[in-house]
Amino acid sequence: MAEDNNQPAASNPQGAAGEQEKPQLKFSLQRIYVKDISFESPNAPAVFQQPFKPKVSLDLNTSSSQIGDDLYEVVVKVTAEVKHSETENTSFLAEIEQAGLFRIAGIEGQQLEHTLGAFCPNMLFPYARECIDNLVNRGGFPPLMLAPVNFEAIYAQKKKREAQQASETTQ
């Protein structure tokens, strides 16, 4: 009978009575926004009168803070500085702080730290990449297509460094 397959399974009241109720896990992205943005081309227009031979340096940082009950702000800061590879003159400097508000409940300790340090930045970085690309393009330069970033690996490296520093301090 096909109709029986659509019926919900009966719960086991004896098993449920003995267990403590676990807090409900909640994760939602509330808002994505630009917190700070900057573009500078200190050597324009002279920079456009020579062949574009870029030397790119990229700096990437993340931070998070609790704003309210179960509400966290996560910020991904990207700084891209491009210099002429031969003259070392700065072609442009583009910076953005891409932020997001996340509602997170039922996650604590290491899991919360991992969520704020890796998972949330992974969600925000594509917006930062697009914004940097747009800024550079509006500045008259070829698009700067930033490669995807593995925030999981960055977070793991950070935890490893912290553990090494802690062990060196205790010795």
UniProtKB/TrEMBL annotation:
State whether it acts alone or in a complex, and with which partners, per the record. Homotetramer, a dimer of dimers. One homotetramer interacts with 1 SecA dimer.
What would be one Pfam family of this protein? SecB
Using the UniProt record, give the first listed, main subcellular location. Answer: cytoplasm
* Highest taxon above the source species: Bacteria
- Where are the compositionally biased (Polar residues) regions? 1-14
Q: Where in the cell is it found?
A: Cytoplasm
Leader sequence residues = none
HAMAP family registered for this protein in UniProt = SecB
Question: Where is the segment annotated Disordered?
Answer: 1-22
Q: Which GO terms describe its cellular component?
A: cytoplasm
From the Swiss-Prot or TrEMBL record, give the protein name. Protein-export protein SecB
Q: Which PANTHER family match?
A: PROTEIN-EXPORT PROTEIN SECB, PTHR36918
Q: Which family does it belong to?
A: Belongs to the SecB family.
Keywords linked to the UniProt accession: Chaperone, Cytoplasm, Protein transport, Translocation, Transport
Q: Please list the GO biological process terms of this entry.
A: protein folding; protein tetramerization; protein transport
Q: What does the record give as the function of this protein?
A: One of the proteins required for the normal export of preproteins out of the cell cytoplasm. It is a molecular chaperone that binds to a subset of precursor proteins, maintaining them in a translocation-competent state. It also specifically binds to its receptor SecA.
